[in-house]
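Let's do one together. I've listed all components of the complex below, 1515 residues spread over two lines.
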Amino acid sequence: MTFLLVILLSAVSYAQQQITVTGTVTSKDDGQPLPGVAVSVKNTTQGVATDGSGKFSIRTAPGSTLVFKALGFTTQEVNVDGSPMHVVLISSQSNLNEVVVIGYGTVRKKDLTGAIANIKGADIKSQGVSDVTKALQGKLPGVTIESAGGNPGAGTRILIRGVGTLGDAAPLYIVDGVPVASINNLSQVDIQSVDVLKDASAAAIYGSRAANGVVLITTKSGKEGKPVVQVTANYGVQRIGHEVDVLNAQQWAKVSNAAHDAAGLARLDIARNPDSLGAGTDWQDAVYRTAPIQQYGLLVSGGSQYGNYSVSGSYTKQDGIVKTTGYDRYNLRVKSETTRGRFKFGETILLTREKTINMAGGWGGQGGNPVGSAAKMIPVFQIYDTSALGGFAGAYGPVVNVANPLAQLHLENIDKISSNILTNVYGEVTLIPGLTYKLNLGYTGNFITNDDYRKRYVVGTLFSHPTNDLTQSKEQTDLLLVENTLNYNKIVGKHSLQALAGYTYQKTKNTYLLAARTDLPDGIENIDAGAGTSTTNGNSYESGLVSVLGRVIYSYGDRYLLTASFRRDASSRFGSAYRHGSFPSIALGWNLSNEEFFAPLKQAITNLKIRASYGVLGNQQIGDYLYSAAIASNINYVIGADQHKWFGAIQTAFASPNIKWESTKTANVGLDAGFLGDKLSFTADYFIKTTEDVLLNVPIPGSAGSTSNPVVNAGRLRNNGVEFGLNYSDHVGELNYSFFGAFSKVNNKVLELGTGSQQIFGGQPTHHGASSTLTEAGGPITGFFLIRADGIFNSQEEIDAYKKDGTLIQPNAAPGDIKFFDANGDGQISDEDKVYAGSPFPSFEYGFGLNASFHNFDLNAYFQGTHGNKIYNGLRQDLESMSLEFNYSTETLNAWTPERHTNIPRAVTNDPNFNDRTSTRFLESGSYLRLKTLQIGYTVGDVIKNKFKISSLRAYISADNLFTITKYTGFNPDIGRTGSIFDRGVDFGHVAYPIARTLSVGLQLTL
Amino acid sequence: MKNIITFLVAVVLVVGCKKSTLELTNPNQLTSDTYWKTEADVQSAFAATYGLLRDVNGGFYGVRGIELGNGRGDDFFIRNDVAALYQLSTFTNTPDNGTANDLWNISYRAIFRANQIMENIDKVPDLSEDAKAAYISEAKFLRGLNYFILAINFGDVPIILKAAASTEDYFVAKSPEADVWTQVKQDFTDAAANLPVSYSSEWVGRATKGAAVAYLGKAQLYTKDWSGAATTLQSLTVAPFNYQLMTDYNDNFVVTKENNQESVFEIQLGDVGGTNPWAGENASQSIGVTTAQEFAPAEVAGWFEVSPTDKLFNEFQKEKTTGGELDPRMYATLIWDYPGATFYNKPFSSFKLLFGYSAMFKKYQNYTQDNELTGASGASDYTSSNNERALRYADVLLMIGEALTMQGKPADAYPFVQQIRTRAHLGPLATGLTQDQMMAEIRHQRMIEFARENQRFYDLKRWGLLKQEITNSDKVGKQFFVADKHDYFPVPQAEINANPKMEQNSHW
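Okay, and this is what the predicted structure of the assembly comes out as:
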């Protein structure tokens, strides 16, 4: 009793010197509360653990130090000052125990020998975009991410280490082990990490498809412990960032009249009385709108020692800034893993459904899509005409057939619904300790429905469509994947070995069906009701890939590292003699910082590793069945007294029976370093990538008579470059901050191409304009080759003085016309005078940003840009032409006149001097710096959390694409033109969709 | 453990035995190895070769071909809408002109296909020697016709008589124009040898012996082999041939009178295929032409791309009929403001002339319809089924007249020229015309007889009158015409870029 009393008293007396300290521990990675963190008073045995909400309460003396320890996190010490504590633990994954996903497995970062860029889902901060890859732009060194157009849901185009091929340069995308065609349909809430395999060592395990790099997406898994429920919501508004400046009605009429007068041609009727026209219709204002974007996500995850699960769902809805366009998406994902004895089973199931409402095309006119038409439509014309079929007015008279963009948007409905299933099921068994066998079965199904309903209309005098027509197509792509792998892990003393052997089989089948009928009754959008002509098309394609693969990762004493891998693929896309390809790689690494001699430096340089690798990768991105000469059917003609259809069929193109794998040899050296206790980390890589036997549709002479160019192994390319990544994290008192930056520079060169003197032209900039790019041996891939514009002839004397051997070089020129440079000195201006004028590839590209938090507030800012690239502004070529009868740029108000000498040529409708020809006049700097994301967040304090019994709640406001610093005058320097590599950097007005500036607010709640 | 290994082995075996899965054959298409098995295969190959003549981009009788073939003439105006057409019609075209490029490519595609037929026909079993000879003749006709088109438009071009068998064969240097003409004449001579005089009604529209003879004569005329031309062409005026002028000139340009007695070779058009003129070579492609839609006036939703010049308008009025009327060919060719003039079921007053010229083209327009938007199928595909008469007997008669006149025998030309005049209700030609006078008459007659029929520019070229007649006209862009240079198109830039053996034409 006395004893008890003594204890009690001493406890009370002890307590009298102490206070109760409460607080919360969260993870820096995802901001989530951390349960089970050991909180102890330094130099005592006293300690507690955080509860399921990451909360703790401990009694200690003021001025003492608390120590926070948790597995997988860096231990932290914090002085007690009596106020509630917010402790953020930094994952030790940002140290070297971090596991990096590589093909068919993972590897500790410290054992890594290849060049891999990676990002955690939690670091993807941008919320105002529907597409997760846009948020990665500029964050991964060596990974170029470009918008694939501003259309809602349009996604991005990813290039890894430049363009290593002349065909499809897209990387291989793998989601939870299954190859997919695109990752644009993924939701941010699903993503645990994105790992990009850049060099041959990292990617060679994917052999024949890895030459353009590999992007591995790992979706979230549950963790052992209490279930976690996360809710995210985001709502934003988007507005057009930048319209093009075009004339109003009165201004247009004046320019048009001046141009006709100069050509000696009659003025247009509609331009007769400029002053009576006023401003007219602002077509761009009519087409664009402020559009909402909203995203909601829910994630539930948890686990025990026997397994874990993670289930998430999300909904995204994005209206386009161009009226009627839009995108929405539903995602549902289930992932779990169960361990039982020596067996392990798991699966990922990912279901997505996307609906995209697209813009109409050009309607056969020359305005292109509604964005292009809105810029070019003459402001004299009206938008609506209630008496017209369809209700829209349009262009009339002898003008270029540009469609009323609003009519295009409202009279043609183009929907695409894409449903995706991704399933991956695996079973793993441990045969003997360290040796596991895994059977992985993957399936992806992609079901696309396209509907195009075109109403009947009369729009002005140039566009009419007398019947309601419907075209529907369905496309299904199935991929089946079977992978057998054996994994062996063994650590003996200082030797660590990780070995992999595998056998895989993959089959892809695509089937397509199209049905169309004309003359549907008004209001009915089903084919059965159509009275007119029916069209049906259908086809299917199949391809297969059988592979064996192996890899050894060996390290000695955490100092000497070796990775060797090998893959041998056989592809159905090549003829039997050329079917097999072998893709070996080897890489070495040295962790200098683990050497004893390094110890004195360890204080300053926490870790230092150098890496080198070499390997061969392949590319088989060509069509199926190219090795046989196909007979094309339905090349029909009319015949007979009754004029019936005569079915036609013949070989129309040449086969490519002797093509083989494209192979890319990559050598890489790299360095990873951490300074000052890993506060500062730095990665650098240098690589040389040589692509041989490039698969390419090489243009053959038209005289050969083929309808298309055969695929051949056509050349050799070289890319070399450097990449840097930098991160600095520290805190000043309660201000935590980190800076990060990424930089990459790639040079490319064509070493050999086609026939040797082969020239491949591309980059048609306007409806009728001449090509602007050229690819040939010795030059860059897709260089701009243009006739050089050398300013304006200000007088007849200058024209007369510009001659060769007494003959005028530009005989059709008049004062105010452009002087072109006769580069080949033959006395005339022709395509032969094209000179190299720049590259669409930047000299370097970069991204940098800041994350900071102070008390409950956090700030994230992120910039991204390119430098040194050129853009050919095709839309400007049209808008400054003054030769075609559509609207013009406001620059034309400043056209040259004898009284006013400017750098805009004179207005003249027939343009006898070709001022408007494809030339350097329309080549602009494409460099830009964009504030991609600015986000300010607030995390609520304990009072609210306790009241509502939640673990964490963060609210934020975010701005995307807030400003862009650029000299480029088009819609967006990140022009996002997809398609042929030879069109790179060419801003073609017909397919543009301007970028939106987005302001959004959001909530992130964890129960 | 044992079970696991058994399972493992089983899986590997099951999956591993799938080597055959890599031996895939194209499920959509036959291959050249499996084709050429039946006569129907041969016939289908012909359909695919004939069809290129009306190809929407580059067929000489498709819409762009008609615009390109006529657009440089002194009788023709093309508005500033399609830049490539405006440029070629105003002589500001460059070697990258898309339309000229397409004409080149399409002609060579037809040659590639014709060559395939000749090379593969022996593979077809059970084909009689006569049938085989006729098919080879037909293929040669098509090849000859395409070389004819290339020769008049480009001059020196590569002569390719075999389908490329290897990569090296893709690259062929060009031959002098004279050699191309030799090939043209050889092909037409061979074609004439074994082609039938006529076909059963099922096959009406294919090349006949008469067509081959007429084109041979035309090629001789173009190469100034006057006596050869006269002999060749005069054979068409006697048995076994039975060509006659249609009584009504206008019957040559309406859909109800196709493949008539005046038609020597005709491009078959019908809205009996797909509904998209621009679909490319597949089932969706409509197999008529969009020419009528492109030429129709704005008031009927046409695209008013072209106009006759007033030089043509005036040329028609130089001689009245015996009844004191305007030439009936003027009414068939043009529509202008005359009493009772209607077009597309509307009075002429509903239309506005947009370019300062006095008339619009009526020839080949389907002006009894309300517009050109829907073809015969009812689909809104802008498709005209009105066959393009590529070579009419009227041409044969005027060529005979010319070939005789140029031999210094203008008196012999009278009966042939007079047939043309009589059909047009013109009186007897004054007797005793000199060679020059008769040629002047023939030139006048050709200008008005064949307006919009891809003849005028090429006639002026072979007469050496391009500079004079273009200068002496109200054609837009005439000041940019450079003699010799603009007689031909330049070799397409794309061809030069892709073919190391190719050289640009002189003057370009």
